[in-house]
Design brief:
Layout (H helix, E strand, L loop, with lengths): L6 E5 L5 H10 L5 E5 L11 H16 L5 E4 L2 H14 L4 E2 L2 H11 L4 E6 L1 H6 L1 H12 L6 E6 L2 H7 L6 H17 L3 E4 L8 H8 L4 E4 H16 L11 E5 L3 H12 L8 E2 L10
Parallel strand pairs: 1-2, 1-3, 2-9, 3-4, 5-6, 5-7, 7-8, 9-10
Helix pairs in contact: 1-10, 2-3, 4-6, 4-10, 8-9
The chain binds D-glutamic acid.
Length: 279
C-alpha cells in the first residue's frame, strides 16, 4: 500500500526548514507542505495561550490540505501545544521534543546534558521532563540537566550570521555555564540553532555531542509512516509546497540558505488567523 498524501509541517517561520531538510533526507519520496508563520514569529517569546492558539490555527490550515501527518517543526510550539494538537488532529502528530530527549540520553557518557532553547521552551520545563523520563526508561541514574535560554541565537541565525565574531562572543556568553557544568551532550532545542552549530561546536569543544532535534524527528517520521502503513513508496515526483503568512519573496530570500538547490520556490501567501479556535 502506498499513500501519496503530503506530510504537513509547520513552524513559526523559517527555523522549521532545518527539520524539513532532515525529513527530505530521511523520506525522500514523501510530498511535504510547509507553513511558516513568519508574520507572527517569533513564538519563543509569546505566552503559552498564544502559541497554542497559533498552533491550532496552523493545524486547521494543514488539515485543509489533506495531509496524512503533521510535524510540529518548532520546539516552542511542541513544548506548549503538542498535547492540544494531538487531541484535536485527525492524523498523527509528531513533535520535536521527545526525539531529541531520546538521542541526548543515548549520547551522554557522563550523564550531564545541556539544553539550549528559546525562553518559552525553557520556561515550560518540557525538555527537562522529557529527558528525565527517557533517562528513567533507560535505567540511567544520576542525570544532570543544565538549561540555558539563548534568545539572541534566533536573530543571529535569521540574519545569516552563522560564522561571525558577534555570534562567537554571544555563544561564549550563553554557553559558559554549560561548559562549567561539564556537559558532554548539548541538545539544540530550537529549530534555528543547527545553523549555528559550527560556532556552538567551536565554543563547546569537540568532545561535546551536539544533538540536532530535526534529525531525530525525521527518524520518528520515517518509523511512524512505516508503522501506520502510510509511507509513499516509489514516488519519483514528490511535491514540495511552501506557504508563509508574510511576504513570499522575503520568505524565499531568508529561507534559501536553509535548503539550498534553488529552494524554496513558488511560495504562496496564507494567513491562518482567520480560523476560529477555542482553547
Ligand atoms: N522555531 C522556534 C523554536 O524552535 C524558534 C523561533 C521562534 O522563537 O519562533 O523554538
Amino acid at each position: 500500500m502506498t499513500d501519496n498524501r503530503p506530510i504537513g509541517v509547520f513552524d513559526s517561520g523559517i527555523g522549521g526548514l532545518t527539520v524539513l531538510r532532515e525529513i527530505w533526507n530521511s523520506v525522500p519520496d514523501e510530498s511535504t507542505i510547509y507553513f511558516g508563520d513568519n508574520s507572527r514569529a517569533p513564538y519563543g517569546t509569546k505566552s503559552r495561550s498564544t502559541v497554542i492558539r497559533y498552533s491550532l490555527q496552523n493545524l486547521r490550515f494543514l488539515e485543509t490540505k489533506d495531509v496524512k501527518m503533521i510535524v510540529i517543526a518548532c520546539n516552542t510550539a511542541s513544548a506548549y501545544a503538542y498535547e492540544e494538537l494531538k487531541k484535536r488532529a485527525d492524523v498523527p502528530v509528531v513533535e520535536v521534543v521527545t526525539p531529541g530527549a531520546d538521542v541526548a540520553c543515548r549520547s551522554t557518557r557522563n550523564g550531564k546534558i545541556g539544553i539550549i532553547a528559546t525562553k518559552g521552551t525553557i520556561s515550560t520545563g518540557v525538555y527537562k521532563k522529557a529527558v528525565e523520563k527517557r533517562a528513567e526508561e533507560l535505567g540511567m541514574n544520576d542525570i544532570g540537566i543544565f538549561q540555558q535560554a539563548c534568545p539572541l541565537f534566533v536573530s543571529l541565525a535569521e540574519e545569516g550570521w552563522w560564522d561571525k565574531e558577534v555570534t562567537r562572543l554571544t555563544a561564549e556568553e550563553y554557553l559558559k555555564p554549560l561548559k562549567e557544568a561539564g556537559v558532554d551532550t548539548l541538545v539544540m532545542a530550537c529549530t534555528h540553532y543547527p545553523l549555528l552549530s559550527g560556532v556552538i561546536k567551536e565554543v563547546m569543544g569537540d568532545n561535546v555531542v551536539l544533538v540536532n532535534t530535526g534529525e531525530a524527528t525525521a527518524q520518528v517520521v520515517k518509523d511512524l509512516l512505516r508503522y501506520e502503513g502510510t509511507a509513499s513508496e516509489g514516488n519519483s515526483h514528490p511535491v514540495r509546497e511552501f506557504y508563509t503568512s508574510d511576504e513570499p519573496e522575503l520568505f524565499e530570500q531568508v529561507a534559501a540558505p536553509f535548503l539550498g538547490e534553488g529552494l524554496p520556490s513558488g511560495t504562496k501567501h496564507f494567513t491562518t488567523d482567520k480560523y476560529e479556535v477555542s482553547i
